[in-house]
């Protein structure tokens, strides 16, 4: 495999051949690999400051540098930084795949464990005769079949009609998708695989920390400064203890750097808006999201709350949250949540808030 392909996809198993025979101590201390260390560390640090990106262009150095990035992330063991880095690489991956050959797309899919197979001509003809409703009249070409389990696993966090299994034709457990859809599935598969790889090596963090002492301190300062710049200290008069479990679950995921699906973000914004949280404070809640972008987040918040769209969206009902996979009542011990008449998260908040208020008054 040529070096150019490995530079684009340094997570491929073949890239390990470049570093396989290098001793860890030599890799992380020798002057021979200084440029690779600078590149790998800068790639992680630049997640919080793009001006700190490395200008190194040597292909082998970049491949080794990516491996060092992973070692640095293991030493950090910080889920927010890991997921933010994974998202940056994810977006680079999508850009490369869009321009690349089908052969390399299949190579990446295989390395990520995404099951696929060629589309029979019969299915292509059926699609031409009965196109998917949301692509009728547009340029759309089927590319590959994806196994439905992988489709569910990796497409669940992607917004849009094309990524809802219920909207997809299913043939013996396989879902036909376009090249663009397949690439988006691959990029989500990369994030899950990459994060799992870093987390599964957490037992090595103590052995690696000694090599990155100064760099660990630097990136933690950058992360804290970045998040504190946007983070809200509280929700004003809002009673957080009265939040329903589904909302608390989403907030915990955000604090841990988990990339939320569109439905979860929509629910969070509409709920906080309805209970009186200002848009600026709603926006700051997303500061720990791995794909946080101030201007984009502000636009989305303004749109959902009616500032741009002039339409103020309603908070989803419990039944809708269940359909989205956001309901957690079966996983928590919350009697109020499990009442037969509990049909809306705002109703939960209202009742719980009143109960907390009475408890406080009686204790005083």
UniProtKB/TrEMBL annotation:
InterPro entries named among the record's database cross-references: DNA_primase_C, DNA_primase_lsu_euk/arc, DNA_primase_lsu_PriL
GO biological process: DNA replication initiation; DNA replication, synthesis of primer
Domain of life: Archaea
Residue numbers binding [4Fe-4S] cluster: 246, 318, 327, 337
UniProt organism field: Aciduliprofundum boonei (strain DSM 19572 / T469)
Transmembrane segments annotated in the record for this chain: none
GO cellular component, one term: primosome complex
Keywords attached to this entry: 4Fe-4S, DNA replication, Iron, Iron-sulfur, Metal-binding, Primosome
Assembly notes: Heterodimer of a small subunit (PriS) and a large subunit (PriL).
Gene that produces this protein: priL
Listed PANTHER family: DNA PRIMASE LARGE SUBUNIT
Family assignment from sequence similarity: Belongs to the eukaryotic-type primase large subunit family.
Name of the featured protein: DNA primase large subunit PriL
Cofactor note: Binds 1 [4Fe-4S] cluster.
């Amino acid at each position: 495999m040529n070096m150019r392909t490995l530079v684009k996809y340094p997570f491929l198993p073949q890239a390990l051949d470049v570093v396989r025979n290098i001793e860890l101590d030599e890799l992380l201390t020798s002057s021979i690999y200084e440029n690779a260390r600078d590149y790998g560390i800068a790639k992680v640090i630049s997640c919080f400051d793009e001006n700190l990106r490395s200008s190194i262009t040597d292909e082998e150095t970049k491949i080794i540098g990516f491996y060092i990035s992973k070692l640095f992330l293991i030493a950090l063991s910080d889920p927010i930084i890991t997921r933010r880095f994974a998202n940056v690489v994810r977006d680079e991956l999508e850009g490369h795949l869009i321009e690349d050959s089908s052969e390399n797309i299949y190579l990446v899919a295989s390395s990520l464990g995404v099951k696929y197979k060629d589309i029979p001509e019969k299915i292509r003809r059926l699609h031409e005769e009965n196109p998917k409703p949301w692509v009728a009249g547009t340029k759309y070409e089927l590319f590959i079949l994806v196994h439905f389990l992988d489709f569910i696993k990796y497409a669940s966090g992607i917004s849009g009609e094309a990524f809802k299994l219920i909207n997809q034709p299913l043939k013996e457990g396989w879902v036909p998708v376009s090249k663009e859809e397949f690439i988006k599935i691959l990029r989500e598969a990369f994030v899950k695989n990459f994060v799992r790889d870093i987390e599964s090596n957490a037992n090595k963090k103590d052995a690696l920390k000694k090599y990155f002492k100064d760099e660990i301190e630097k990136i933690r300062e950058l992360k804290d400064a970045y998040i504190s710049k946007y983070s809200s200290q509280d929700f004003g008069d809002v009673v957080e203890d009265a939040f329903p479990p589904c909302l608390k679950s989403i907030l915990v995921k955000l604090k841990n750097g988990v990339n939320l699906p569109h439905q979860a973000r929509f629910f969070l914004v509409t709920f906080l808006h309805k209970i009186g949280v200002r848009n600026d404070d709603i926006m700051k809640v997303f500061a720990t999201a791995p794909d946080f972008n101030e201007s984009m987040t502000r636009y989305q918040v303004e749109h959902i709350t009616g500032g741009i769209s002039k339409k103020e969206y309603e908070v989803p009902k419990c039944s809708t949250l269940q359909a989205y996979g956001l309901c957690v009542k079966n996983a928590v011990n919350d009697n109020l949540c499990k009442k037969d008449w509990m049909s809306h998260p705002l109703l939960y908040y209202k009742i719980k808030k009143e109960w907390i208020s009475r408890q406080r008054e009686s204790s005083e």
